[in-house]
């Protein structure tokens, strides 16, 4: 038994293809036009306002951001990796307490 797909005449999908192409062109052009605002800002400085922060961890993080973006990024990567490791181990323990074995599967062929 053969499965046949009915043929769609060229005149039926040609306008749809043209409309899709026109939509794509408008969508791509709109992003460039909206992003092309005015003249570029030359004296823009990004800093965290630490005047109202009490001394502590939050002020240290804000001062770190203001001082060195590279060191701030390194601290963020280390903290996120540690959080991922801790959450992964915690979830592994919780799943083990439920009695689900997530170890290696043995394949018998």
Account of the 3D structure:
The protein has helices spanning 10-35, 57-67, 69-97. The protein is mostly helical. α2 (57-67) packs across α3.
Morphology: flat
Number of separate helices: 3
Helix content: 55-70%
Distance between the termini: 33 Å
Structural class: mainly alpha
Low-confidence stretches: none
How much strand? under 5%
Largest sheet: none
Order of helices and strands: HHH
The averaged pLDDT comes out at: 85
Could you give a quick summary of the protein structure above?
By secondary structure, the protein is mainly α. It is built from three helices and no strands.
SSE arrangement:
Elements: H1 10-35, H2 57-67, H3 69-97
Helix pairs in contact: 2-3
What key attributes describe this structure?
109 residues; mainly alpha; 3 helices; flat
């Amino acid at each position: 038994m053969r499965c046949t797909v009915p043929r769609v005449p060229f005149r039926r999908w040609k306008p749809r293809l043209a409309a899709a192409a026109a939509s794509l062109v408008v969508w791509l052009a709109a992003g460039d036009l909206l992003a092309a605002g005015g003249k570029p800002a030359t004296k823009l400085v990004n800093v965290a306002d630490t005047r109202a922060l009490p001394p502590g961890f939050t002020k240290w993080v804000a001062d770190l951001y203001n001082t060195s973006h590279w060191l701030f990024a390194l601290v963020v990567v280390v903290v996120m990796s540690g959080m991922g490791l801790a959450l992964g181990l915690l979830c592994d323990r919780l799943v083990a307490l439920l009695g689900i074995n997530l170890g290696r599967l043995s394949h018998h062929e």
